[in-house]
Design brief:
The chain has about 300 residues and is α+β, with helices and mostly antiparallel strands. About 25% of the residues lie in helices and about 30% in strands. The strands form 3 sheets. Strands 1, 2, 3, 4, 5, 6 and 7 form a 7-stranded antiparallel beta sheet that branches.
Amino acid sequence: MKNILNKFKIPTVLGLGLIFFGLASGVFLVLREQVFLSKAAPDLIPQNITISNITDSSAVVSWETNSTVFSFVSFSPNSLQQQTILDDRDTTPKPHLIHYVTIKKLLPKTKYQFSIISGKNTSETLQFETSAPLTNQNEFTPVIGSVSTGNSPLDEGIIYLSFTGATIQSALIKKGGNFLIPVSQIAKDDLSGAFSLTDNMPAKLTVRSSKGESGIQFYLKANMPPLPPIKLGQNTDLTAPEETPQYDLNGDGKINAADNAVILQNFGKKPKDPNIDLNSDGKVDQKDLDLMSQKLKTLGSQ
């Protein structure tokens, strides 16, 4: 009997040791995976999630991540069906910092649910609603322009266009830093139908990218010329009133000694042209000469 027990003693101890080693290894691997995920997850979490380009049959979901990652939208057109929708630039999944997904073939005035899968992270369930049918189109031309960072075109980013009372419009920035945003059909922000554009309507563009942000305010035109180049990190307001050419007194498009001579010719008088009275005190005197002199000095130092 003793010999029989001795015969099974070593294998039993060895077996127990292998079991404990397996458990320890499993715990170690799980913990290591958790540590890895805890370090990686913040960089992969979708940020600045934006719903744009909402129509009666489509919508765009866009977001950013701090690290390049395979990312896509998991979309539920109904409770029984789940679809995976890739980035507009991809036919097979590719890692990006800026993510842009168009969801199509939707129904008007309908709520839809979706989640963003970013690496091993899944966002909370989000939703958007499509607009009422957009039956009319305007004849406004697209808003076009370009974005640069330093002396180089911005190679990846999204540009958002907003009007008061309308849904946000957006477009990916293309190669060479160029962008084009159609404005022929825009939904109202309450999704009740089409938003009506008017000439000289205030508008705002916002650029988002991994390299920074920028903004430009401008007035929309029916036949919109290209916007001035946008530089990342700078904000431009084209709606601010232009400075009145107050010091160009002879109307030749320049400010120089000839304008100073106009003041001297009217010195001590109440001028017929009120613009010659630079400080608007009712007479042309030494104060006006001093203002012109200071202006010429400023221009000479530029």
